[in-house]
């Protein structure tokens, strides 16, 4: 297990007031706790479908609608989801309506089976069969986690930190594979396959190997499997385990997390508020789905990456620096509550300050060190400049070098490699090669410079870090202030506190998929995931 | 007639620099191949300043050389976009100045089309192609109705929201569904609104012909690759023009008529 964790690099220390740090964390807890209770009291169509997928239900009908959607819709139509999908579905199996969930889904789709809510002994029988089959799925996820640990022991881990993270995104999984293997050969420790634009708004997970996407490749179980197998081959060839990343976000977050666990993905983008703010997904739906998906990630040994970099693409990176800190603290609270450990928290932040601003690099260092100091055991995810990449590739190359330097100096855990052709083209082969040369030069020349760097306790950097932390505490205080926000964090999201977006709790996509749990609700997946901790 | 050549460090030296990758292993031959390409591009003499293998099968080159071509500035013809491209900040400012309220955009996919990729790429904050979507613009009020919106619903929402513009995206093209749907929508809006009150009608999708607006009865068609910034700039240009008061004495032609 220790093999999957990053060694904590030596880094400059920033003197922060311990009491303020404690206060920030306790405010994040105060803001987050009502959301957790809300998540505990509700389920969603995607949580229930994820449970079916965990039990091994895969595949799709002739129209490409997954059987898990078909079965869930039929159950919901007959008896509702207030008791979960498992009781009615497994009751039908116990009654002998079908041999397994796949056959049951097919029958349900043509309306040849009726569902009911089993009672007494029937309930006990259905519950025990559900627990057995969902439990078998969780054991498959456990086995995949052990397999990862074995492979890391056999091949060796990424040689150093930060891990070098490269993106492929052709839209065609069969084109992605050679590109990913080439990127691994060129030095990538982590490969991310960007999803097709708009997948986050689909309320089902597409099926099979896909060759057509918009600016990215669909996340499907088969695509996950193909890419993981290809990178296993590369790991053998290169003598180091190459990690695979995808996106557990959008309306199918719990299902995609489950598929990632089943197919041994290693990192997943998984932010607590991104879908709400940037995709207008209903806040309740997001938080409920979030909690389940994080429980699965915790169990599967997957490292999550959060999306704070996104705030800085819409708001000013200096003015909004504290919203990044607030979001990191909230993400940390929600993640730990769901069972994730520090080494699994790839909290995000980005190098997005206007380079024309005086002292911009010192400000970047201050922000990056603040994150490092606040979350000393988390492998922070450091995101390259995008906003101020103008198409002047030469200037962009310089900016990326400073981004790399800031990452090296401040001990970032995961470095997403910036491309000088950002905002011009999707990266060419030569762009990737030049970008990796840039990273290698900086890490080789200055990778350990952090050992010598001690920001003056009353200097510009330390002062700026303290200011941002204080502003974060102020914002968290406002969020949790009952007068300003009677509904807490949900009200703050509704009134546009984050990323300038107003997202009321009763609006947004996917609200019709949220269901309040009834007395007697049963979902063996959540039960087992919580027992297992 | 103004003739110019590229400028390195001396007027008329014609120096340019290019970089490219050839799918060849690094060798004398591949460097020769790079030179040949440079010569065919008009660089004479050309100098391979840098050659670096990228993996076993590719080589990256930086080539400097002198081009013999002359550029006749007088013969340059530029197709002008009929609206200026604005940054979000400029767009917001223009709206604030001309409308003194937010510009209202209602969007959705009509008919049976469930592909919200296009409309979401334009409307969602997330945006695409490195540009934020229209929701990001402080002075735009965006109402995204999502997928499978019926034409009457769309008209009703446009009326209720007092929409300045209606954006519709159509991906499905089976049996020309996108064209039929668009014509139906245009007709419904013409029926429901007096000409000067009718919101601006904009459709977009990968299979539309950008020149077909008039035939479809809409104000504008956007094709594949349109970015949110282009749509926002267009909306600002047209809506602001509509609301710029025309004093009775001035002879400026009505912007309505010119559309």
Fraction of residues of chain A in helices?
40-55%
* Amino- and carboxy-terminal Cα gap of chain A: 15 Å
Overall pLDDT level of chain B: 87
Tell me the greatest interface.
A-B, 27 and 24 residues
Cα separation of the termini of chain B = 36 Å
Oligomerization state: heterodimer
Q: How many helices of chain A in DSSP terms? A: 19
Mean of residue pLDDT of chain A?
93
Beta content of chain B? 15-25%
Percent helix range of chain B: 25-40%
Specify the overall morphology of chain B: elongated
Tally of contiguous helical segments of chain B: 8
Q: Approximately how much beta-strand content do the residues of chain A carry?
A: 5-15%
At the fourth level of CATH, the homologous superfamily of the largest domain in chain B is: Cobalamin-binding domain
Number of domains of chain B: 2
Strand ordering within the main sheet of chain B: 7-6-8-9-10
Describe this structure in words.
Chain A has 533 residues and is of the alpha/beta class. Chain A is built from 19 helices and eleven strands. Chain A has helices at residues 18-41, 45-54, 67-79, 86-94, 101-109, 120-155, 173-185, 221-238, 253-262, 274-279, 283-300, 309-314, 321-337, 360-374, 393-409, 429-446, 460-480, 489-494, 524-531; strands at residues 42-44, 163-168, 190-193, 243-247, 267-269, 303-305, 345-346, 348-350, 381-383, 414-416, 514-516. A nine-stranded parallel beta sheet of chain A has the order 7-6-5-4-3-2-10-9-8. A two-stranded antiparallel sheet of chain A has the order 1-11. The longest helix of chain A is centred in the N-terminal third of the chain and has 36 residues, at 120-155. The two termini of chain A are 15 Å apart. The model of chain A has no long low-confidence stretch (mean pLDDT 93). In chain B, β3 and β4 (58-67) form a beta hairpin. Chain B has helices spanning 28-40, 88-99, 117-123, 151-160, 177-192, 213-216, 228-243, 255-258; strands spanning 3-4, 15-22, 43-54, 58-67, 71-72, 103-108, 140-144, 165-169, 200-204, 220-222. The longest helix of chain B has 16 residues, at 177-192. By secondary structure, chain B is an alpha/beta fold. Chain B has a five-stranded parallel beta sheet, sandwiched between helices. The chains are: A alpha/beta (533), B alpha/beta (259). The A-B interface holds A 182, 185-186, 196-198, 201, 214-215, 277-280, 313-314, 386, 422-423, 428-430, 433-434, 499-501, 509 and B 19-21, 52, 54-55, 58, 60, 115-117, 120-121, 124-126, 128, 130, 132, 135-136, 138, 144, 146.
């Amino acid at each position: 297990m220790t093999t999957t964790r990053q060694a904590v690099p030596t880094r400059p220390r920033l003197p922060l007031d311990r009491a303020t740090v404690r206060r920030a964390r306790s405010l994040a807890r105060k803001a987050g706790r009502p959301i957790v209770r809300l998540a505990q009291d509700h389920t969603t169509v995607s949580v229930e479908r994820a449970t079916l997928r965990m039990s091994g239900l895969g595949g799709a009908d002739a129209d490409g609608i997954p059987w898990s959607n078909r079965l869930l819709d039929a159950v919901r139509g007959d008896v509702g989801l207030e008791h979960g999908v498992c009781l009615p579905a497994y009751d039908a199996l116990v009654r002998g309506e079908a041999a397994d969930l796949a056959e049951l889904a097919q029958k349900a789709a043509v309306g040849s089976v009726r569902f009911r809510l089993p009672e007494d002994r029937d309930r006990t029988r259905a519950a025990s069969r559900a627990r057995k089959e969902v439990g078998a799925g969780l054991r498959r996820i456990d086995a995949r986690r052990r397999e990862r640990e074995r492979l890391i022991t056999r091949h060796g881990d990424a040689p150093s930190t930060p891990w070098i993270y490269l993106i492929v995104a052709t839209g065609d999984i069969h084109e992605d594979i050679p590109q990913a293997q080439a990127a691994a050969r060129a030095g990538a420790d982590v490969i991310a396959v960007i999803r097709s634009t708009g997948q986050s708004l689909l309320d089902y997970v597409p099926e099979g190997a896909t060759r057509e996407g918009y600016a990215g490749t669909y996340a499907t179980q088969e695509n996950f499997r193909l890419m993981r197998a290809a990178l296993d081959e590369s790991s053998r060839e290169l003598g180091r385990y190459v990690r695979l990343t995808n996106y557990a976000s959008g309306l199918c977050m719990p299902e995609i997390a489950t598929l990632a666990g089943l197919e041994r993905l290693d990192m997943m983008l998984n932010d607590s508020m991104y879908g709400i703010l940037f995709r207008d997904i209903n806040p309740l739906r997001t938080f409920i789905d979030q909690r389940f998906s994080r429980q699965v990630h915790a169990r599967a040994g997957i490292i999550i990456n959060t999306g704070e970099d996104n705030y800085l693409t819409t708001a000013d990176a200096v003015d909004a620096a504290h919203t990044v800190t607030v979001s990191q603290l909230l993400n940390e609270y929600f993640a730990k509550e769901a069972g994730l450990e520090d080494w699994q928290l790839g909290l995000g932040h980005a190098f997005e300050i206007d380079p024309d601003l005086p002292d911009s690099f010192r400000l970047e260092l201050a922000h990056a060190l603040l994150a490092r100091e606040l979350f000393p055991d988390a492998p922070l995810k450091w995101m390259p400049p995008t906003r101020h990449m103008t198409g002047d590739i030469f200037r962009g190359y310089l900016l990326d070098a400073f981004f790399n330097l800031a990452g090296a100096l401040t001990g970032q855990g995961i470095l997403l490699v910036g491309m000088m052709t950002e905002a011009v083209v999707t990266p060419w082969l030569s762009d990737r090669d030049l970008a990796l040369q840039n990273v290698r030069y900086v890490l080789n020349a200055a990778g350990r410079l952090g050992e010598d760097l001690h920001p003056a306790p009353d200097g510009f950097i330390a002062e700026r870090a303290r200011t941002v932390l204080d502003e974060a505490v102020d914002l968290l205080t406002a969020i949790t202030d009952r007068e300003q926000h009677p509904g807490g964090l949900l009200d703050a999201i509704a009134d546009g506190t984050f990323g300038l977006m107003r997202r009321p709790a009763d609006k947004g996509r996917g609200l019709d998929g949220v269901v309040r749990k009834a007395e007697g609700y049963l979902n063996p997946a959540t039960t087992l995931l919580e027992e297992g901790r | 007639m103004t003739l110019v050549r590229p400028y390195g460090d001396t007027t008329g030296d014609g120096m340019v620099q290019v970089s490219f990758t050839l799918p060849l292993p690094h060798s004398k031959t591949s460097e020769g191949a790079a030179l040949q390409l440079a010569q065919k591009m008009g660089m004479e003499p050309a100098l391979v300043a840098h050659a670096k293998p990228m993996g076993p099968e590719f080589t990256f080159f930086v080539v400097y050389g002198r081009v013999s071509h002359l550029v006749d500035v007088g013969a340059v013809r530029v197709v002008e976009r009929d609206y200026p491209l604005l940054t979000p900040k400029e767009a917001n400012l223009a709206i604030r100045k001309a409308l003194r309220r937010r510009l209202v955009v209602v969007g959705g996919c009509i008919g049976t089309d469930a592909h919200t990729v296009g409309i979401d790429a334009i409307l969602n904050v997330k945006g695409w192609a490195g540009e934020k979507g229209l929701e990001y613009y402080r002075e735009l009020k965006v109402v995204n109705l999502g997928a499978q919106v019926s034409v009457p619903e769309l008209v009703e929402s446009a009326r209720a929201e007092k929409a300045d513009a209606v954006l519709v995206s159509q991906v499905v093209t089976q049996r020309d569904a996108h064209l039929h749907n668009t014509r139906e929508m245009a007709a419904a809006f013409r029926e429901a609104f007096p000409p000067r009150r009718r919101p601006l009608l904009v459709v977009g999708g990968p299979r539309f012909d950008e020149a077909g607006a008039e035939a479809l009865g809409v104000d504008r068609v956007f094709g594949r690759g349109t970015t949110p910034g282009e749509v926002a700039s267009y909306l600002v240009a047209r809506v602001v023009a509509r609301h710029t008061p025309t004093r009775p004495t001035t002879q400026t032609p009505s912007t309505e008529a010119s559309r």
